Amino acid sequence: MSSPNALLCWTVTAYRKDGMTEEAYHKYLSEVHGPLVRGLLAKHGFQSYSLVHTNTTTRAKMDQIFDPQFANVADYDCIIQATFRSVDDFVSRLIQNTFVSLLLITRTLPIPSVPGELDE
Q1: Distance (Å, rounded) from C-alpha 90 to C-alpha 11?
Q2: What contacts 15, CB < 8 A, 6 or more positions away?
Q3: What beta strand segments (E) does the chain contain?
Q4: pLDDT tens, position by position, 38-94
Q5: CA 95 to CA 111: how far, in whole Å?
Q6: What is the pLDDT of residue 64?
Q7: Nearest 5 degrees, angle CA 52-CA 53-CA 57?
Q8: Mean of per-residue pLDDT scores for the chain
Q9: Which position among 14, 79, 100, 102 has the lowest Cβ density within 10 Å, counted as fewest Cβ atoms?
């Protein structure tokens, strides 16, 4: 039985676009995607939001902390987690009210395909 105060956690994993540098992806996540999504989630009552950009250097350091039990380290470029109170809240507050707007917004955002393109 779940507690009435229990939170649900939504986890998204992603890879950067082919040909995009880690630096350009980090800049896109931290300056464009993160602020946009963080605001939408806060507006619709999400309890927390975290975005982690894992680059080649940080993934290589995982060798230092895992043993055979944890040998399957994912190579995702980004891991996003958000917590919310109920599936109904997620569907009615975020998806139905925002999803179409978010799609329209993100289709117009510059997603760089070459290093430095976001700077232009």
Answers
A1: 13
A2: 76, 77, 78
A3: 8-14, 48-53, 78-84
A4: 888 887 788 888 888 888 888 888 777 777 777 777 789 999 898 988 887 777 766
A5: 22
A6: 79
A7: 125
A8: 76
A9: 100
> What pLDDT shows up at residue 38?
83
Element (H or E) spanning 105, and its range? helix 96-108
d(CA 42, CA 14): 22
Taking the alpha carbons of 38, 41, 106, 18 in that order, is the dihedral positive or negative?
positive
- CB atoms closer than 10 angstroms to residue 38: 15
Question: 15 and 79 in contact (C-beta within 8 Å)?
Answer: no
Question: Does domain 8-113 correspond to CATH entry 3.30.70.100?
Answer: yes
CB-CB neighbours of 69 under 10 Å: 6
pTM score, whole prediction:
0.67
Comparing C-alpha atoms, which of 54, 50, 58 is closest to residue 15? 54
- At a CB cut-off of 8 Å and minimum separation 6, what does 82 contact? 9, 10, 41, 46, 48, 49, 50
